[in-house]
Amino acid sequence: MAVKLNRSAYDHASRLIHEGQVVLDDRDAWSEHQPSARAENEYIEAQGFAAYGRWYLGIDDEASPKTKGRHKYPYGDFEKVHRCGVISAESRAAQRRHEDIKAAAAHLHGMLEQARVA
What we know:
It contains six helices and five strands; from the N terminus they run βαβαααβββαα. Helix 5 (83-95) runs antiparallel to helix 6. The strands form two sheets. Strands 1-3-4 form a three-stranded antiparallel sheet. The protein has a two-stranded parallel ribbon with strand order 2-5. By secondary structure, it is α+β, with helices and mostly antiparallel strands. The radius of gyration is 13 Å and the shape is globular.
């Protein structure tokens, strides 16, 4: 599996953070806040896989483009960036040694921390 940074997802998350489309939740809230499989399927049906992919910081370039398995490291709920999702992505990317994704998530995390104190 060759997982790499999804640059369009990173740009999308950055833009949403700048626009204030964020949930500044607790670090451990992701299991409660991440979209369900049903919500994912409904989003894909309504918006398509290209829009779905913008919510995932990683792409497995060996997986088929029109599958959920292609997309790794979610960070939001299809409306807003969640701090807990970004932290989860950062942590998992570090564990799996996906350094480009870890760095991107760390940058987004820093942007969110600035938003918390503003």
